Amino acid sequence: MQHSLDPNEAQFAKLSSLPLDTPLAVLNLFAFKDVAAYQPGDPEYGTPAAEISGQEAFARYGETAGRIIHELGGRIAFNAAADQVLIGPEDPDWHVAAIMYFPSRGAFLEMMANPDFQQASRHRKAAMKNHHMIHLNGEAFKD
């Protein structure tokens, strides 16, 4: 199973080519590292602040990402711990499934370009063993 933490060039190009005004929901499957792995250049690298679990690092990311999602008119529509993989490869064993709703693809792209979001993403990258993100039709999640 391929492990990745960022979209590849083709995936990002496809996202950017779709209508920007359509609602978007994002299904995230998260698998956390036991211990966060901050990288050289991260302010936490080599400090006691880096000696945390992947879930704790992800919570740091979530504080900023959640605020930005709400500022853009979006919301966390669903968030729950995963119990098991019933159908499909058991590795990775997902820890959390979450759905975020954005009023438009443009809002999602605005979040990704936000400097605060980009800075906070180091926590997500330190936290994740694996992350799959699947874009869904957001019409089903509109208020």
What does this structure look like?
The protein is an alpha+beta fold. Helix content is 34%, strand content 23%. The protein contains four helices and four strands, in the order H-E-H-E-E-H-H-E. It has helices at 9-17, 54-71, 105-113, 115-127, and strands at 24-32, 75-81, 96-102, 128-137. It has a four-stranded antiparallel β-sheet. Helix 2 packs antiparallel against helix 4 (115-127). The longest helix has 18 residues, at 54-71. The chain is globular. The termini are far apart. The mean pLDDT is 92.
Topology order in helix (H) and strand (E) letters: HEHEEHHE
Across the major sheet, the strand order is: 2-3-1-4
Mean pLDDT: 92
Shape: globular
Low-confidence stretches: none
Beta-strand portion reads 15-25%
Supply database-style keywords.
alpha+beta, 4-stranded antiparallel β-sheet, globular
